[in-house]
Amino acid sequence: MTNKKTDNSNAINRRNFLKLGAAGAAIGAVTLPAKAKESVVKKIDEKTAGNFIKTHDDFPHEVRDDYKPHSNKDIMFTAGWWGTHPEATDVHESAKKFAEKTFMHFEEKKGFDQLSKSLNAGAWALHNKVSPMSSQAISGEGILKWDQYKKKEGEFLPHHDWVNSHQYKFSSKKTASDTIKRAARLYGASLVGITKRDKRWDYADFVDPHAIMEGRPEDAIYGWERFPFEPKSVIVMAFEMDYEAIATAPSDVEGAGAGTKYSEMTKVAYQLAIFLKQLGYQAVPCGNDTGLSIPYAIAAGLGEGSRMGNLITYKYGPRVRLAKVYTDFDFVEYDKPIEFGAMDFCKNCMRCADACPGKAISFEKEPTFEPAYDGAWYNAKGVKKYYMDAKKCFHTWSEFGTDCGSCMASCPYNKPDFWHHRLVDKITAAMPGPVHNFMREMDILFGYGDVGNPEKIDVFYNPEGRSYNGH
Amino acid sequence: MVFSGTETLFYLLGILTTLIIMVLIKYNKQFKFSALSWSLLGLGSFLLLFCIAWSVSSVLEGVPRASSMGLVVFGIPSILLLLFGRKIALKKK
User: 4Fe-4S ferredoxin-type domain location, by residue (chain A) (predicted)?
Assistant: First the structure.
């Protein structure tokens, strides 16, 4: 009798346990306030990632005393299309070949056919229409113009592209930074950072293609004296590119992934500049022009440098495009450069160098102050980093007739936004160098980062798992 | 679709975790697990859950090879640990 009673008691307890568990889970899920959930998630994130992300007070790469700001003349695109290096005939040839192949010439080959070329053309269309040369590092073109118009009394200018005479005052520097970043996010930026203007990262001079086209070569180069104000801050924005598009590299579908964000970043940089102008501050929106985007992005805490030369962000890896807004507004809290182990991982990984079809990426073990190759007028020398041979890279582009992107696609930091990749990133950051070799091999074994695979184009177009009609 | 694939996965993993814990508690009453058995069975169960989470997530992101590798790298050790833990638990009795 006693035994039976005990058994029943156990059974009831188990049932009660189940009932209580189910009821508790249901009540918990319904009543646990969103704030509490957020703080739990934040706590977990701090415990796992917080310790791995270090901040630096100064620029994290060593810069030699003899470093000189990079000239706009020495950018591969200006040399290729605007002849700023007449001796570089191979670069002119590549530029010509690229221009002939891009958008206008299609092949039977998958990824370079009419479908892919059209996709690419549509992606770039907005950028090419409204700021046609900012991707070629030419300043002040189209809506990215340097003009700081002051509206006259009674004048009606509904586009709002003028500097308000009344300056809005923020209650604190933090509020100002948060508000500017919120605006940038609203307009479409994926990541935003603010840093002090640093003349080291500005172009030393600028190329005026109109003067070249109009046969006035003596006016082709101009300096900062034409810039409308003394910039004090630079707002840097990163734009996440589509994972599946970039994974098709090298192809026009990858080019479309890049072009889509060039169009978007042009729009967003312009919108943010108007926001600042309407607050009463001067602002100039920029794409690849006016200054070097990558060191500015590093200084603004958006990510780390890398072997391939691109910025590696914590969230999206190298799969981002960058835009900047120069402004005279300086009542802001500046961001600090961050470090989460990407540069350290690059020392051992070299997947981008292996994947590069033009062999443009360095295999050097350690970063250096100078490139290993001679005659590199196109590299900003004197910064301790990995040097990428932009000339070889550009020659490869001309072969494909589109930008390549194999380095980004092959990078182990380039992953879609899934929990297991974030976990691996955090583990990688905590591990010492020798483990990075193992991580690189596992990345290959698990099937990530292979380039030149036409099946990825099928994955890009595959409608499975996607809903286009909203349900 | 009401829930995304990942949301459904983690909901099902929650149920599975509860079931595994209940099974372990039930058999602990019967066999009185040693510390070693607990460690092996606990680690094995964790790896099994992680293997399912990894492999299903890899399928959801469209990388079937990562899913297969997940089964090999996490799934096989988890089964070995569970079998070894079970063997020790039974032997003790």
Answer: 336-366
